[in-house]
Specification:
The chain has 5 helices and 6 strands. By secondary structure, it is α+β, with helices and mostly antiparallel strands.
């Protein structure tokens, strides 16, 4: 009887180690699912912000229809001016804390609208929010007149694009995501 008990020593330890390996794979799988869920949540959140910003410029263009007719919005690309968000537009057509809005012409209002959506509101630390502050680095706002030359009945394509999927530790190329809207102001 003692020889049978002696042969079974260590079997319980092997069973525990196998169970530990199985549980470890389960925990790693759950962690992977959590990371994937967080990635998709961030992607959806960026898309929602881009849609809000696209609707913002569309609303501003509908309000300033004279500026649209003058072609003040056509051909705008926020990525072409590296200093766009570093300089406060003058006049500043929006009221802020304790400061009244300045009177703006149709052209100045269009310039201010493009600045506001691309860069955000001007504050003590410069421009905040907007396309360049709310979306990942490399995001841009484009306003393109669909006709050449642009006419009264022309439509515009408004787009906000941003890179997605690239991280500091990833060598993978980022995928360019875009929200577009066609507008006839």
């Amino acid at each position: 009887m003692s020889s049978t008990a002696h042969k079974q020593q260590g079997v319980g330890l092997i069973e525990v180690l196998v169970a530990l390996v199985v549980v470890s794979f389960g925990v790693l799988g759950m962690a992977g699912l959590q990371l994937t869920g967080m990635k998709h949540s961030t992607n959806g959140f960026n898309r929602s912000k881009a849609l809000i910003l696209t609707e913002n410029i569309a609303t501003r263009m509908r309000i300033n229809s004279a500026g649209v007719l003058d072609g003040d919005y056509a051909g705008f690309d926020s990525s072409k001016d590296a200093n766009l968000c570093k300089v406060k537009p003058v006049p500043y057509c929006q009221a802020s804390k304790g400061i009244a809005a300045q009177s703006c012409s149709v052209d100045e209002l269009a310039e201010f609208d493009l600045f506001s959506v691309a860069c955000g509101d001007w504050g003590p630390d410069g421009a905040t929010a907007g396309v360049q502050g709310m979306l990942p680095s490399g995001a841009k706002l484009e306003v393109v007149c669909d006709d050449s030359p642009c006419a009264v009945e022309s439509t515009y394509t408004l787009s906000v694009s941003w890179p997605e999927g690239q991280t500091a530790s990833s060598e993978k190329e980022a995928v360019l995501k875009r929200v577009q809207m066609r507008l006839r102001p």
